[in-house]
């Protein structure tokens, strides 16, 4: 296999180790520099992935991208914060790869950039959304009750009631994805918390 790679910046440098335990400071300076550049592309990757929901109806009256845009538009027009609106936009982004646990996928993506409550809403919206349909599928409509004592219960109930369960109207005029792009970029510009924070902040050697 080639050890070098032609990139826009010339020949890419690569670490020399074959096992991580052979790694050196120089190796990690290379990887750290690449990581910082790669991390900056997160909003682009997220927005591209969100587009995979376009045209995916799954039997619903609107496709999953329109549902996402409509949820975010409703939250935005109701005066919610950018973090909240971005969560609303991305709350179902996990439908593609998390077919059995999609709320957790979206929640993990936004976790470094939002408050604990906004993260919690995304992570648990599935059970709360179920209030509107679980009983039609032989499931427990009140599955959300297991969270009744959680401080974020009301916030999650409100998200589903006002925005998520309400966002299936084919006649609603949602904002386009481009409208939300600057918000996604601003919210994802810098993590509020990440186990890799120090590496992100250190200068490339
Ligand atoms: Fe969902
Ligand atoms: Fe949803």
TrEMBL record:
Q: Which InterPro entries match?
A: HD_domain, OP_Dioxygenase
Q: Which Pfam families match?
A: HD (PF01966)
The record's Gene3D superfamilies line, in alphabetical order, gives: Hypothetical protein af1432
- Could you tell me the superkingdom of the organism this chain comes from? Bacteria
Q: Where is the HD domain?
A: 64-135
Q: State the protein's name.
A: HD domain-containing protein
